[in-house]
UniProtKB/TrEMBL annotation:
Residues 40-158 form the Acyl-CoA dehydrogenase/oxidase N-terminal domain. Residues 163-272 form the Acyl-CoA oxidase/dehydrogenase middle domain. It comes from Marinobacter shengliensis. This is Acyl-CoA dehydrogenase C-terminal domain-containing protein. Keywords: FAD, Flavoprotein, Oxidoreductase. PANTHER family: ACYL-COA DEHYDROGENASE, BROAD-SPECIFICITY LINEAR ACYL-COA DEHYDROGENASE FADE5.
Length: 596
């Protein structure tokens, strides 16, 4: 198994050469004061050392050991406490956090690269800083000044970690039916009672305190999603002097045995009149959660790329070393008993598919992060509004498409290893198991597709979709004279037109047929994702082509050749997806329950 190495060269290429992120940062005054290219580069370098040198070496053994539950306490695998301490000492938890409360205020475009390294190196561990950063975002956006001052500095530092408590045994996708209750006390606090399940890092031994953000219902709350409020519930009470007080009234009832991310604790949390404080307004808890969801959902998409990158690194090394059979064109290494499997077209198909998804996906996550940065930090109202629209539209695509392709990539990586991919020793089967959850949590990928098609595309009658079309169309227009880009612009334009036709078709169908959106959604998101990746590969060609001549490293020439593979072999999937979508919902809905 190849040791995970943070893909710094590629991250720098995406940030500096494809997107010119430093120019974006300089144009956003609130970011410009926190980051310059040298600082960003130093952060990438240090992140690479920690993720490759500290987190990755723990990944395999921690998967074997898992977390252990004992009388409500959860102990983590060997080395996790020390690794967590390294994260705390480097201030990594607060990398993107609000500087007013001790965060480092770095742009998401940069933070996204760190997240990818952490998830690629050790996804189970990486969930702890990820959940803490998510909880901080919600608290920073919606908490009172008092709550922020009391909790954020220790959460940004990582001395305290965060957990998000939404799911209940009977309520996952449909949070409107949760039963956890919050009863008001005279002192402004609330008593929270109920059971939450599947709470990632809800209990553990790495941090001094764990701050839970819990969704619950007030006694007089309206029914459904409009009656949910958000509460901050600390494991240990925090005294006014900042020191920790008594243990709060809740505990971890058990942890799940599960398919992957075994080294992360997935907890049943029992709240028994636990003291909590309202975050944001009463009955507006779901809206508060959605603030951080755009970040979290992109973060989960990035988990898909992280796992896929780790798989690609191993598969690439293996394909160069493993010798089996001769190349169809004749022996390539006659001195050996057989040629490396890399000579076989099908192995190349596998590796190039992986490389297309990983590098195209990294560009796409950075593209979405760029819109998040503009939406958060621009001081121009119009620009901010435009960016918010892009974020709303692209977030479900980033979450679902990147995790779907992430799993595809890890499975292909496993296949490159043949039977050895099925054996634990090589690490590929762990990547498949770990990556699988990314399609399920933070809103299943089916729900992401419904969000894209229903809430974003159809509900806005295509207006949000048009923002994306305009962006791609202006790129095509600006570059029509570019000879290197010529072979890519035509299929990109054709793919965009195909997507636009299908978009219009489904918007029309949705008017008469309530099942139209659900029937089209997953294929539509896929089609959107493949088109978006084509756009990313075209941007990649634009950045790489001028440097390809005389490139002996293979970095830039490899980009151009991978782009060609993507356009020739993967983008055509949109044709069959479009056909399927146009067939409508009849075939799906025709069966009675006893016929399925
Ligand atoms: C390892 C792990 C970690 C997790 N971490 C957390 C955490 O930290 N905090 C937290 O709160 N939760 C967490 N979860 C819970 C996770 O977010 C939920 O499992 C997920 O949202 C799906 O909910 P569910 O399991 O109840 O499935 P259900 O909602 O019952 O869905 C079952 C199936 O029906 C589909 N479906 C449901 N409704 C619709 C609809 N309207 N239209 C179309 N299809 C639909 C779904 O897509 C899915 O395929 C975690 C889960 C796991 C397994």
């Amino acid at each position: 198994m190849a040791d995970y190495q943070a893909p710094l060269r590629d991250m720098r290429f995406v940030l500096n050469e494809v997107f010119d992120a430093p120019a974006l940062w300089a144009s956003l005054p609130k970011i410009a004061e926190n980051v310059d290219p040298d600082t960003a580069d130093a952060i990438l370098e240090e992140a690479g050392k920690i993720t490759s040198g500290v987190l990755a070496p723990l990944n395999r053994e921690a998967d074997e050991q898992g977390c252990k539950w004992n009388e409500g306490e959860v102990s983590t695998p060997e080395g996790f406490k020390e690794a967590y301490q390294t994260i705390v000492e480097g201030g990594w938890n607060g990398l993107g956090g609000n500087p007013d409360f001790g965060g480092m205020g770095m742009p998401k475009t940069l933070v996204a690269q760190f997240e990818e390294m952490m998830q690629g190196a050790n996804m189970a561990f990486g969930l702890a800083p990820m959940l803490t950063a998510g909880a901080c975002l919600a608290l920073d956006a919606h908490g009172s000044q008092e709550l922020k001052e009391k909790y954020l500095p220790n959460m940004y530092s990582g001395v305290w970690s965060g957990a998000m408590d939404l799911t209940e045994p009977h309520a996952g996708t449909d949070l409107g039916i949760i039963r956890t209750k919050a009863e008001p006390n005279d002192d402004g606090s609330f008593n929270v009672t109920g059971t939450k399940i599947f709470i990632t890092w809800g209990e553990h031994d790495m941090a001094e305190n764990i701050i839970h953000l819990v969704l619950a219902k007030l006694p007089d709350a309206p029914k459904g999603p409009k009656g949910i409020s958000l509460f901050l519930v600390p494991k240990f009470m925090v005294n006014d002097d900042g020191f920790l007080g008594e243990r709060n009234q809740f505990s971890c009832g058990s942890i799940e045995k599960k398919m992957g991310i075994k080294a992360s604790a997935t907890c049943v949390m029992n709240f028994d009149g636990a003291k909590g404080w309202l975050v944001g307004e009463e009955n507006k808890g779901l809206a508060a959660m959605f603030t951080m969801m755009n970040y979290e959902r992109l973060g989960v998409g990035i988990q898909g790329i992280g796992a896929a990158e780790a798989s690609l690194q191993s598969a690439r090394g293996y394909a160069n070393e493993r010798i089996q059979s001769r190349a169809p064109t004749g022996a390539q290494q006659p001195e050996k008993a057989a040629d490396p499997i890399l000579v076989h077209p099908d192995v190349r198909r596998m590796l190039l598919t992986m490389k297309s998804y990983v590098e195209g996906g990294r560009a796409f996550s950075t593209y979405v992060a760029q819109w998040l940065d503009i939406s958060k930090y621009s001081d121009n109202d119009e620009q901010r509004k435009h960016a918010e629209g892009m974020v709303a539209l692209l977030t479900p695509v980033a979450k679902a498409f990147l995790t779907d392709r992430g799993l595809d990539t890890t499975i292909i990586g496993q296949q490159v290893f043949g039977g050895h991919g099925f054996i634990r020793e090589w690490g590929q089967e762990q990547l498949v198991r770990d990556c699988r959850i990314t399609q399920i949590y933070e809103g299943t990928n089916g729900i992401q597709a419904m969000d894209l098609m229903g809430r974003k595309v159809v509900a806005s009658q295509g207006k949000l979709y048009e923002l994306f079309v305009q962006d791609v169309a202006s790129f095509i227009e600006e570059n029509t004279g570019d000879a290197a880009l010529k072979p890519y612009l035509e299929p990109l334009a054709a793919s965009l037109e195909r997507l636009s036709d299908v978009t219009e078709h489904v918007i029309k169908q949705a008017g008469d047929n309530p099942n139209a959106i659900g029937a089209a959604a997953v294929d539509y998101l896929d089609m959107f994702g493949y088109t978006a990746l084509a756009y990313m590969w075209a941007k990649t060609v634009k950045a790489a082509a001028p440097k390809a001549e005389g490139d002996t490293s293979g970095f830039y020439t490899g980009k151009l050749k991978t782009a060609r593979f993507y356009f020739d072999r993967l983008l055509p999937k949109t044709v069959s997806l479009a056909e399927g979508i146009r067939s409508g919902s009849d075939a799906m809905m025709a069966l009675a329950a006893n016929e399925i």
